[in-house]
């Protein structure tokens, strides 16, 4: 079906991104996979291209656009080529909304120009060992010094995407104890300079997929964070996190749809070219039926994503709406990628084939940003259950 969610400007941007990926990413991507991350100078190239500044006001070096559609195009084009932009998605999709919404003017002047240029890469540190989805159960603490000049940060975080290379990390810490009535109270966001004494990166975690996105463990031992680097109000972090979950989950839904779309395209091309028993794999009825079923699911996922993108643009996308979109598209993606890999036969299990990369990468869609089980809980609550 013809898509109406994108304008001519969006499609012109798509062509720019597609050309950039072909020239700057595809030829060197195997090197990034071996290294476990994209090189730092690549982020400067993204900054020069304008990818990091799309939603940033012009006064801070950005383009001043609104909405999520340009970022959706980046996601779709990366999936189409079977690559990623490393931890760039966290930089723009997760960290930027917090800075834009909750930073004061002095902080924006200090951080946004370097954010836009790629000179300063960011990450967000929520998850702790043993807490998982229970954000209210985090134990990392930030105690205000007696003179009120800084917070003393102590604790640990894990599964932090971009945490190994980040220059500034948005750390969620407990600045006051929780109460029996409200476990979510007392959490704050501190923007931590990664060069501060006591800040350290532990293991770089070796993942099944997303090989070019560095994921690490962080440790804080008496890190002195200036009070000027508190983001928003003290004790309000949980409400801030809940507010941004809609965009985070929308981004995952877009990624899941884009991966499923890419998987079908790869399988169609492969089965047309691959010959067995003297004829193309695509000529067999089973192949046709499998791809037809996958295409129908991808078409439905596209409709869900496009509707969500439009609703997000108008401010109407609710927590339950995006939970439905994430649950549906990630489950579709899992089924479609698996079936498309099967059509590749043994070659589908070989990492030099993009379908293998998609297979490994898509599994986390049903885990991060809220598991499928959490999505079902959100949806059930919206039904009054």
From TrEMBL:
Protein name: Acyl-CoA dehydrogenase
Domain of life: Bacteria
Domain Acyl-CoA oxidase/dehydrogenase middle: 123-223
GO molecular function, one term: flavin adenine dinucleotide binding
Keywords associated with the record: FAD, Flavoprotein, Oxidoreductase
Lineage: Bacteria, Bacillati, Actinomycetota, Actinomycetes, Kitasatosporales
Annotated family: Belongs to the acyl-CoA dehydrogenase family.
PROSITE patterns reported for this sequence: ACYL_COA_DH_2 (PS00073)
Domain named Acyl-CoA dehydrogenase/oxidase N-terminal: residues: 7-119
Stretches assigned to the Acyl-CoA dehydrogenase/oxidase C-terminal domain: 238-383
One Pfam short name: Acyl-CoA_dh_1
Gene3D superfamilies tied to this protein: Acyl-CoA dehydrogenase/oxidase, N-terminal domain, Butyryl-CoA Dehydrogenase, subunit A, domain 2, Butyryl-CoA Dehydrogenase, subunit A, domain 3
Cofactor(s) essential for the protein: FAD
Cross-referenced PANTHER family: ACYL-COA DEHYDROGENASE (PTHR43884), ISOVALERYL-COA DEHYDROGENASE, MITOCHONDRIAL-RELATED (PTHR43884:SF12)
């Amino acid at each position: 079906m013809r898509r109406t969610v994108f304008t001519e400007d969006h499609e012109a941007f798509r062509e720019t991104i597609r050309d950039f990926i072909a020239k700057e990413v595809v030829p060197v991507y195997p090197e990034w996979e071996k290294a476990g991350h994209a090189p730092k100078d690549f982020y400067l190239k993204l900054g020069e291209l304008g990818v990091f500044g799309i939603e940033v006001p012009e006064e801070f070096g950005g383009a001043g656009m609104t909405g999520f559609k340009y970022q959706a195009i980046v996601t779709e084009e990366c999936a189409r080529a079977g690559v990623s932009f490393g931890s760039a998605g966290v930089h723009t999709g997760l960290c930027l909304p917090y800075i834009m919404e909750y930073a004061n003017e002095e902080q924006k002047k200090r951080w946004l120009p370097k954010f836009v240029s790629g000179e300063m890469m960011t990450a967000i540190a929520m998850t702790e060992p043993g807490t998982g989805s229970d954000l209210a159960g985090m134990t990392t603490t930030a105690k205000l010094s007696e003179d009120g000049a800084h917070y003393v940060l102590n604790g640990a975080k894990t599964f932090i995407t971009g945490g190994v290379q980040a220059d500034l990390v948005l750390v969620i810490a407990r600045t006051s104890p929780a109460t029996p009535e409200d476990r979510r109270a007392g959490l704050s966001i501190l923007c931590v300079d990664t060069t501060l004494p006591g800040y350290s990166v532990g293991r770089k975690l070796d993942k099944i997929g997303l090989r070019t996105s560095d994921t690490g463990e962080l440790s804080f031992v008496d890190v002195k964070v200036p009070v000027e680097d508190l983001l928003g109000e003290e004790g309000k972090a949980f409400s801030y996190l809940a507010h941004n979950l809609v965009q985070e989950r929308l981004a995952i839904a877009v990624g899941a749809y884009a991966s499923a779309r890419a998987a079908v395209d790869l399988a169609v091309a492969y089965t047309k070219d691959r010959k067995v028993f003297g004829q193309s794999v695509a000529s067999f009825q089973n192949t046709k039926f499998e791809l037809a079923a996958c295409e129908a699911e991808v078409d439905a996922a596209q409709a869900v994503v496009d509707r969500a993108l439009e609703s997000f643009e108008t401010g109407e996308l609710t927590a339950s709406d995006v939970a439905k979109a994430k649950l549906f598209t990630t489950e579709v993606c899992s089924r479609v990628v698996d079936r498309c890999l099967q059509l590749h036969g043994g070659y589908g299990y070989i990492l030099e084939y993009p379908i293998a990369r998609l297979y490994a990468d898509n599994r986390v869609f049903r885990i991060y940003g809220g598991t499928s089980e959490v999505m079902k809980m959100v949806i059930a609550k919206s039904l009054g259950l």
